[in-house]
Amino acid sequence: MRRPTVRAVAVLAVTAAVLGVPTVAGAMTHPKLIGTVGKNNAYKIDLTSKGKVAKTLNPVTYTLVIHDGSSIHNYELDGPHGKSWTFTSVSFVGTKTITLKLVPGKYKAYCSQHESSMFQHFTVR
């Protein structure tokens, strides 16, 4: 059996890219979660997965995209075993992307400035 030449491998790689054939790197992307806080300065915070409010998630690594639309709110997350993350500060407005491994347990996403009314609970099983 003949081994493919470097040129043949290059032609196959270019053809796959042009045709949009998935590659190993594309197959290794993490599921995405979207966190939104203070859109149009609203007193609202949420975390969604595939367009639906996150209530129960799998224990895997996620790409978390936080959209912070207000300089009076922030986005924080508390998890099991005393873990906590501050993704945006109160003065921050913009988008941040984080890779985060969620382990089984109960979680709370919230705005630290308005925690009594701006929070969402979810579970990782």
Summarize the amount of helix as a percent range.
10-25%
**How big a fraction of the residues is strand?**
35-45%
Number of strands: 10
Residue-averaged pLDDT, rounded?
Answer: 86
For the biggest sheet, the summary is: 5 strands, mixed
Structural class based on helices, strands and sheet pairing: mainly beta
Query: What gyration radius follows from the Cα positions, in whole Å?
Result: 20 Å
SSE order: HHEEEEEEEEEE
List the uncertain runs: 8-27
Strands of the biggest beta sheet: in what spatial order? 3-2-1-5-8
Q: What is the overall silhouette?
A: globular
Distance between the termini: 49 Å
Tally of alpha and pi helices = 2
What does this structure look like?
About 16% of the residues have low confidence. This protein has a five-stranded mixed β-sheet, with no helix packed on it. Helix content is 14%, strand content 42%. By secondary structure, the chain is mainly beta. A hairpin with a 2-residue loop joins strand 2 and strand 3.
